[in-house]
Amino acid sequence: KLFFTDYGNAAKVERCDMDGMNRTWIVDSKIEQPTALALDLVNKYVYWVDIYLDSVEVVDYQGRKRHTIIKGRQVRHLCGLAVFESYLYTVNSDNLNILRVNRYNGTDVQSLARLDNAKEIHVYQKRTQTAVRSHACEVDPYGMPGGCSHICLLSSNYKARTCRCRTGFILGSDGRSCK
């Protein structure tokens, strides 16, 4: 799945398949300007920062179990969001501090460091990743991902895929080759 935020005409957090199909709103109320987004891949939770409401909130992948982690002055001007173990990590764009927030109670907020021009934050650690199984976009014996001549996008599950073409090409009638 692909998760993303939008705060155009109607602010929301959405998800869709990697090929753009099955687009679903998972949060569309009591939300103003969702920006940074982070996923707990193991427990299947979506966290986001709302810079207008000065809040960090969470829902499960279906948009249920919503609650506010932290709200108010402590979390103004946040950009970037990452999840690791019991904490959320974020950047305060006003003073460029890296903050650590306990994601279970929101009361434990610590400034860890200050970095010039920091706007994003990521955690790279093996425990944050789920196990990868074989999938429909694996490279075939001819070196083509999922048998697609240009781009292979996973569809509704790991066994299904959709082929797409680079700009200037159209998908052939076989659904795999680009012309």
Automatic annotation (TrEMBL):
SMART domains: LY. LDL-receptor class B repeats lie at residues 1-43, 44-87. Pfam families: FXa_inhibition, Ldl_recept_b. One of its GO terms (biological process) is canonical Wnt signaling pathway. GO terms for cellular component: plasma membrane. Keywords: Lipoprotein, Receptor. GO terms for molecular function: Wnt receptor activity; Wnt-protein binding. This is Low-density lipoprotein receptor-related protein 1B. The lineage of its organism: Eukaryota, Metazoa, Chordata, Craniata, Vertebrata.
